[in-house]
Amino acid sequence: MNLLFLAFEGEAHAMAHLAMRFKAGGHSVFVLSCDHFNVTHTRGEVFAFHRRVGLAESEFGNFEGVYRELNDLPESLPDDAVDWKYLRTFEARYCKRFTLLEMVAMDPLLSGAYHHRTIYYRPAIRRSFSNISSCKQGISKRCSRAAASIVSSRSTFSIL
What we know:
alpha/beta
């Protein structure tokens, strides 16, 4: 069985241990750290921990590429640069508890609605949706039948 573990901040260590238990049972595993701080602050620490517990480099990752892509987008991103059809399809298929717009409002990187700290760079809304599209497409690839049989997440993306 192929297992995808979506870790958010402090969950990375526990998810790595859980992944190792399944790996020992002969399953394929991948731990994806889904939070911004794993890219900007704790990546080295978390990745070193994953290596120490026995995960191979190909069995863990984060959204660093997505954030690099987001940073390369122009502030004045045109509306047609966002894959709205994909986002609508994804939302209809996976978003059972919250809509994508509600999740944007709850995300500290994409909105200050629930996060009043000013330590975040918050892109224009089109860039936000382009970023969401990239993140969701990345997760969808991991969730395809060939990539993952089961997705495990405690609090990350309440959509799965």
